[in-house]
Specification:
alpha+beta, three-stranded mixed beta sheet, 5 helices
């Protein structure tokens, strides 16, 4: 659930910060799991990618369908390969207090579909392009109070 889901009045997207738009329920995995298990998790959860975290819930990488398909393309075995050997480790993130303009800048500049939200080095949530579109529509919705 996103913080903006509780909003009952129109708002401007430019007034929001990352914590208000991010999805807090995030699927993650460890670098040590097999690429097969990561693939299954992405499929079951309907995700295209997910953060890879360490035991302290710090983001150490990102694994995507694209990364996993590269293994398949090269005739590799998803079962014998580990996520840590195929994840992207140069992950750009935003803070909870980042403006939506800053979030959009990262999504656009890096061509990301999702960006992790980090606070004190720990994963707090993810913001996707879809989350920003949702916030845009939600902010312009008409709400009526019952007299």
């Amino acid at each position: 659930m996103r913080d903006i889901d509780y909003s009952t009045a129109p708002f401007q997207l430019s007034d929001l910060q990352a914590w208000q738009v991010m999805e807090e329920s995030v699927d993650t995995c460890k670098a040590s799991i097999s690429c097969r298990d990561a693939s299954e998790l992405l499929i079951v959860r309907g995700r295209g990618c997910m953060p890879v975290v360490d035991d302290l819930n710090s983001v150490i990488g990102f694994i995507s369908e694209y990364d996993l398909l590269q293994i398949v393309k090269s005739h590799g075995d998803l079962e014998s390969e580990q996520v840590g050997d195929h994840m992207i480790t140069d992950v750009v993130s935003v803070s909870r207090e980042s403006s939506i303009a800053d979030v959009l800048g990262v999504l656009e500049d890096k061509h990301y579909l999702r960006v992790p939200v980090i606070s004190d080095g720990k994963l707090q949530g993810l913001i996707s392009r879809r989350d920003v579109l949702y916030a845009t529509l939600k902010g312009k919705a008409k709400y009526y109070k019952i007299p």
